[in-house]
């Protein structure tokens, strides 16, 4: 089964999200393995990024008052 083509604006947003996520892994996670996944349906696009690095303590907060990428919804 072939997925329909991804519109350019969505493809660019997905690329930028993957790029930022990978950059965060390189800078902060000390990971050895990274898994990037993508799934398209008729109604949605799902990008997943996971690694075997160390996480961070949500209770402590980020160095700059943020927690990195939390979510992005494109309407």
Structural account:
It is elongated and about 40 Å long. The two termini are 25 Å apart. The chain is an alpha+beta fold and 75 residues long. It has one domain (1-75): 2-Layer Sandwich (Heat Shock Protein 90), CATH 3.30.565. A hairpin with a 4-residue loop joins strand 1 and strand 2 (45-51). The model has no long low-confidence stretch (mean pLDDT 81). The protein has one helix at residues 8-29; strands at residues 34-40, 45-51. Strands 1-2 form a two-stranded antiparallel sheet.
Q: What portion of residues belong to β-strands?
A: 15-25%
Net shape: elongated
Helix percentage? 25-40%
Any idea what the radius of gyration is?
A: 14 Å
Major sheet details: 2 strands, antiparallel
- Second rung of CATH, namely the architecture: 2-Layer Sandwich
The overall number of domains is 1
Mean of residue pLDDT?
A: 81
Elements, N to C (H/E): HEE
Find the CATH superfamily.
Histidine kinase-like ATPase, C-terminal domain
């Amino acid at each position: 089964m072939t997925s329909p083509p991804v519109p350019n604006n969505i493809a660019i947003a997905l690329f930028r999200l993957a790029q930022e996520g990978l950059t965060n892994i390189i800078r902060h996670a000390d990971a050895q393995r990274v898994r990037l996944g993508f799934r398209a349906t008729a109604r949605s696009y799902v990008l997943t990024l996971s690694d075997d690095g160390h996480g961070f303590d949500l209770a402590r907060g980020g160095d700059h008052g943020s927690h990195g990428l939390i979510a992005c919804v494109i309407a």
